[in-house]
Design goal:
Cytochrome Bc1 Complex, Chain A, domain 1, 2 domains, mainly alpha, elongated, 264 residues, two-stranded antiparallel ribbon
Length: 264
């Protein structure tokens, strides 16, 4: 039994995995009413009658092909799900899913594209995005066309994480361009509102572009113990080194399903 999280994105694998871990780190909580709704919905789906002979045939042949022969799986699932409580799910989550659990195990697979584009696409840093956004804002405020290079040279020590410092620099720039003080105050105020909306995206971009040391934290509450990720370069060689797992075993003995009496 397990679950998977599958993401395709332009962001780095390390960043995406960190966001998955952050999402799973939250405390599992659900009201009793919501839990009962989800439970009843699942029971309804499991109890749904097969619509045609093809569906029934596919289900039975899956049991045979898997060599598990668990023909009563649906009935057992319905019985087990009906007995579950909200406390059971919370205990299961805290033991096997939460990154804080020492009994959790996971397999993380990172697939990185090695395809090369026909043309070189420049990768903009967080600072470049800030300059471009500021250039557009000031060009609109001054009703003129400014270049990113002009803005960059006018703000050599720009620090967007310090709103007071940034607002003072922008105010001085506007007044140097002939904007009245009262009008500059209004423009700066609007700019600070836009900055607050932009900062989360810039911080995420900055975190994404930080170099990774290919280390992942093991399970447990803030333990310093780490293990280095295994980089697989030759998949065939890696697979040859794996130990063979045991084959499937029937859940029920086949003799239980044999009919020895003759039927006319």
């Amino acid at each position: 039994m397990g679950y998977r999280v599958l993401i395709q994105s332009e962001r780095s694998c390390e960043y995406l995995e960190s966001r998955i871990e952050a999402f799973l780190s939250g405390d599992w909580s659900m009201s009793e009413e919501d839990f009962e709704k989800h439970q009843q919905s699942l029971l309804t789906r499991l109890s749904e009658s097969l619509k045609n002979l093809n569906q029934e045939s596919n289900r039975l042949w899956w049991y045979i092909g898997s060599e598990i022969y668990d023909f009563l799986q649906i009935d057992n699932d319905i019985e087990n799900v009906s007995k579950l409580t909200r406390e059971d799910i919370a205990e299961f989550y805290n033991a096997y899913i939460s990154p804080k659990s020492k009994t959790r195990a996971k397999l993380s697979v990172h697939l990185k594209s090695i395809a090369k584009s026909s043309g070189a696409v420049p990768v903009l840093s967080a600072a470049d995005h800030i300059i471009n956004a500021l250039t557009q804002f000031l060009s609109l405020a001054l009703s003129t066309s400014l270049s990113a290079d002009d803005v960059k040279s006018s703000f050599p020590n720009l620090n967007m994480k310090s709103p007071e410092h940034t607002s003072r620099q922008v105010h001085e720039f506007l007044t140097s361009k002939g904007v009245e003080t009262a009008q500059a105050d209004i423009i700066v105020q609007k700019g600070m509102v836009a900055l607050q909306q932009l900062m989360p995206q810039l911080e995420a971009l900055e975190a994404d572009q930080k170099p990774s040391n290919d280390e992942v934290t093991t399970n447990g509450d803030g333990e310093s113990e780490t293990k280095r990720a295994t980089i697989i370069e030759d998949v065939s060689e890696w697979r040859r080194g794996l130990m063979l797992s045991k084959g499937p075993r029937p859940v029920r003995d086949l003799s239980e399903m044999e009919e020895t009496t003759m039927k006319l």
